[in-house]
Design the sequence.
């Protein structure tokens, strides 16, 4: 199959302005109405089918000479992501030089909240200075409330250049009453769109081969109630009759009944071959000659020479409710009213299996021509599930390899859940997509179901063998996340024998499993070799190479190897420099920012991490939460506490709104960590009661909730809590040592030094600290020790007493001192109060001595405890002495 076919996700015929028929009646009175309301941002035209809504809007745009974006909506657009894709494509069609920042949000799934989308879209629209029309035709097909909310949002503070035109069979569920009150909307309805007697006469007279006098035109206008579609049908019906007036008077009943009667009459006059063509093509939302020819099944006694080209020419010559969709005259569709009638007629006269076969044949034609979304729709309508699944099988790697994840997700969403749950290929595809979205629950559930289904299938089939390879990769990934080194590597090694060479995206996951598995086994050089070999493979796309560099970067980060982590991140950014892959770019920014923070380069770390938070919807939730945690720590260290709090609030809201439960739990746990860092021990201990610190295995990267729980125990300071902390840390140290998780182990060792220092076991404290320093020195990971707390400073001083030439220990101590609060950190009154605390005075004695109230003393004490990260009076005095705020 042509590789370029996979790129055409949009039907550009839907972006063509409605064709204006040559026999159009000038609707001057309506054009004047529209022009009078042209200064308002919204025009709403509502009327039943066949009232000329599309023609009127197209004619207005033509008369005004304004640029015009157009979308002919259908059922597939009843999805916010699909709708936005077409909206932006229509904008780009009118303004090709426009830089649309909203496009970056379409890489994400699920999409951001409507408020964010609206803001981005309005900012894009505000770039346009020249007035333009934007028409949403058949808006009644939209039932997704998110689309309605988006349109409503655009009208709150509408872009000055935009004039939005909605064409609908009914009033849309928008705040129209409010818009009327604000003078934002011009409205036309069905009564206003009815043809006047004079317009009806003009219309009928302009129809070819028909001479209608004014009296007959007046009768038909009344019979059809000025309904343009009804008049066209009447004109078709009257062609060939001599006594037109008598025939017109014979029509009776409502306009709907008249329409059905006229449709049937018009159809009865056509040749059997043309009727067959009409009935066959009624299942199509758009058609062209080659597609019609494929569907056509000549009947006994029919003309075998009849061609689709003749059929389409006949449709156009007879004005038989056909609408051109492009300027080339290739694609067409029926007027919706006519298509509905043809479908109804077909259902009444044809077995359902014949209709199903037509859908299946149409599906084949669309698939062969690279129109995959329509192919899937027709396959599923035919009940041809195997064909639809096969289409996904044949094309999913192309989509994955090009990072077109949202399009592939859209394909999967077309399948009913009951079908998806029974197809291992669809399940594994959904699981692979889940890896990019950070949806571990989806990965686990889909992998488990796919594995069970695959167990009942023969591996002699090449297709099943490939699926087996994908399931093994996913199982290896899950085992890796659970710190099962041996199991992860075993799955990865076995998967090598099953995967296709062109499965680049899946192979990038395999590279992650193998690279991290080798690192966890203490064989990081093997991890680097794995990545190098994968990147060097022929035809490996740049976006996949970038993903593999991220895999290598993670392996080096777990080793606390700063130089190689930064190098891998830069290689990633270089590979996608000209590609719109903000999701992958966010991984690289996180790795850079995280390493720079550990090296205590706070300003540089901040500049990297704000890139991740700039577009939170493009980042993996785990990366986003860690980036936010590091930024909060940076801002706190820089004295910008309000900024630190704001970052956390924004991320908590983001995760809550987007259903990222695990990331939301992490941010709740980090609230406790943050309270400890800012010295509010009481709040930290309160928050810790609601946090879930042990919700999963220890994490790989910056924030490890299990360590926050340990810090709470240290803040309590009792012998029992210190014993608990020691037991937990010892267990964690053994686990981190087993899986070679050096980046986390350094933190654990520093906390072990803290515990022993607090227990006055200085020799043990120095021993653990020395090991931590040895692991941290190659990467220059200084910040870990500063963040650990004051007892480490005392242990550092002891190390330097024994090893005065320990360069890294001295470097850490110097950074520690620079980062520590000084006497300027406390107010003059707080320093006074500290000195009295050191003398052992009670609260009442301090109040009397300083001539302040007891309540004021307690307030000052609370501030001192917070600033010095102390839990009580003794802790505050000891901390102040350690920092040199008061003398020993």
Sequence:
């Amino acid at each position: 199959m042509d590789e370029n076919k996979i790129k055409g996700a949009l039907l550009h015929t839907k972006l063509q302005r409605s064709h204006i028929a040559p026999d159009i009646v000038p609707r001057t009175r309506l054009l004047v109405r529209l022009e009078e309301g042209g200064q308002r941002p919204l025009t709403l035209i509502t009327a039943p089918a066949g009232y000329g809504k599309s023609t009127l809007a197209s004619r207005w745009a033509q008369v005004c000479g304004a640029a015009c974006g157009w979308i002919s909506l259908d059922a597939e657009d009843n999805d916010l992501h699909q709708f936005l894709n077409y909206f932006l494509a229509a904008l780009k069609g009118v303004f090709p030089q426009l830089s649309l920042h909203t496009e970056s949000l379409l890489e994400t799934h699920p999409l951001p909240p409507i408020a964010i989308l609206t803001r981005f879209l309005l900012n894009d629209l505000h770039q346009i200075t020249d007035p333009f029309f934007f028409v949403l035709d058949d808006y009644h097909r939209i039932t997704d409330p998110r689309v309605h909310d988006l349109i409503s949002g655009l009208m709150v503070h509408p872009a000055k250049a935009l004039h939005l035109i909605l064409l609908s069979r009914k009033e849309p569920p928008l705040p129209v009453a409010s818009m009327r009150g604000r003078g934002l909307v011009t409205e036309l309805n069905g009564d206003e769109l009815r043809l006047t007697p004079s317009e009806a006469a003009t219309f009928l007279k302009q129809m070819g081969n028909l001479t209608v006098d004014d009296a007959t035109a007046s009768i038909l206008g009344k019979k059809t109630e000025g309904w343009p579609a009804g008049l066209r049908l009447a004109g078709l019906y009257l062609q060939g009759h001599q006594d037109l007036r008598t025939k017109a008077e014979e029509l009776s009943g409502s306009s709907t009944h008249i329409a059905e009667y006229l449709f049937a009459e018009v159809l009865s006059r056509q040749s059997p071959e043309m009727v067959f063509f009409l009935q066959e093509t009624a299942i199509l939302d758009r058609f062209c000659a080659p597609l019609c020819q494929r569907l056509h099944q000549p009947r006994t006694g029919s003309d075998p020479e009849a061609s689709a080209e003749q059929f389409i020419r006949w449709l156009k010559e007879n004005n038989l409710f056909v609408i051109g969709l492009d300027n080339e005259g290739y694609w067409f569709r029926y007027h919706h009213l006519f298509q509905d009638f043809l479908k109804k007629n077909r259902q009444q006269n044809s077995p359902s299996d014949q209709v199903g076969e037509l859908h299946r044949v149409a599906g084949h034609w669309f698939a062969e021509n690279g129109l995959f979304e329509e192919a899937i729709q027709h396959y599923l309508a035919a009940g041809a599930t195997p064909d639809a699944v096969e289409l996904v099988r044949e094309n999913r790697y192309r989509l994955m390899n090009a990072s077109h994840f949202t399009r592939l997700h859209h394909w999967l969403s077309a399948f009913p859940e009951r079908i998806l749950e029974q197809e291992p290929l669809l399940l594994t595809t959904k699981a692979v997509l889940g890896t990019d979205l950070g949806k571990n629950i989806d990965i686990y559930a889909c992998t488990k179901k796919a594995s069970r289904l695959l167990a009942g299938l023969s591996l002699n089939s090449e297709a099943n063998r490939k699926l087996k390879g994908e399931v093994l990769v996913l199982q290896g990934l899950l085992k890796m996340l659970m710190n099962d080194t041996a199991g992860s590597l075993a799955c990865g090694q076995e998967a090598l024998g099953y995967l296709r060479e062109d499965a680049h995206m899946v192979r990038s996951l395999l590279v992650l499993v193998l690279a991290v598995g080798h690192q966890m086994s203490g064989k990081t050089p093997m991890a680097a070799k794995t990545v190098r070999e994968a990147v060097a493979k022929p035809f490996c796309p740049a976006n996949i190479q970038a993903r593999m560099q991220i895999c290598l970067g993670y392996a080096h980060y777990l080793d606390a190897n700063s130089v190689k982590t930064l190098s891998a991140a830069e290689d990633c950014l270089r590979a996608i420099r000209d590609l719109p892959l903000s999701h992958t770019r966010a991984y690289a920014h996180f790795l850079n920012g995280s390493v720079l923070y550990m090296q205590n380069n706070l300003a540089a770390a901040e500049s990297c991490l704000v890139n991740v938070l700039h577009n939170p919807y493009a980042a993996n939730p785990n990366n986003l939460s860690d980036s936010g945690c590091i930024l909060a720590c940076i801002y706190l260290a820089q004295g910008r506490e309000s900024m630190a709090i704001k970052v956390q609030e924004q991320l908590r809201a983001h995760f809550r709104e987007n259903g990222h439960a695990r990331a939301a739990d992490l941010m709740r746990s980090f609230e406790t960590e943050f309270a400890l860092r800012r010295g509010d021990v009481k709040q930290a201990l309160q928050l810790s009661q609601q946090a879930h610190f042990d919700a999963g295995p220890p994490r790989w990267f910056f924030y490890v909730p299990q360590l926050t729980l340990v810090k709470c125990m240290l803040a309590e300071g009792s012998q029992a809590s210190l014993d608990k902390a020691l037991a937990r840390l010892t267990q964690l140290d053994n686990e981190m040592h087993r899986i070679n998780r050096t980046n986390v182990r350094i933190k654990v060792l520093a906390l072990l030094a803290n515990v022993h220092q607090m227990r006055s076991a200085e020799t043990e404290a120095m021993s653990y600290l020395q090991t931590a320093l040895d692991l941290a020195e190659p990467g220059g990971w200084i910040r870990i020790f500063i963040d650990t707390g004051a007892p480490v400073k005392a242990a550092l001083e002891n190390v330097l007493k024994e090893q005065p030439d320990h360069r890294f220990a001295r470097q850490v101590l110097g950074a520690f001192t620079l980062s520590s609060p000084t006497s300027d950190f406390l107010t003059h009154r707080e320093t006074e109060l500290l000195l009295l605390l050191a003398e052992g005075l009670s609260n009442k004695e301090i109040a009397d001595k300083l001539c302040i109230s007891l309540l004021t003393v307690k307030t000052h004490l609370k501030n001192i405890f917070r600033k010095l990260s102390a839990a009580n009076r003794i802790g505050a005095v000891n901390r102040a002495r350690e920092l040199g705020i008061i003398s020993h």
About this structure: Strands lie at 42-46, 67-72, 132-137, 162-168, 185-188, 322-324, 332-334. The chain has a mean pLDDT of 87. The first strand starts at residue 42 and ends at 46.
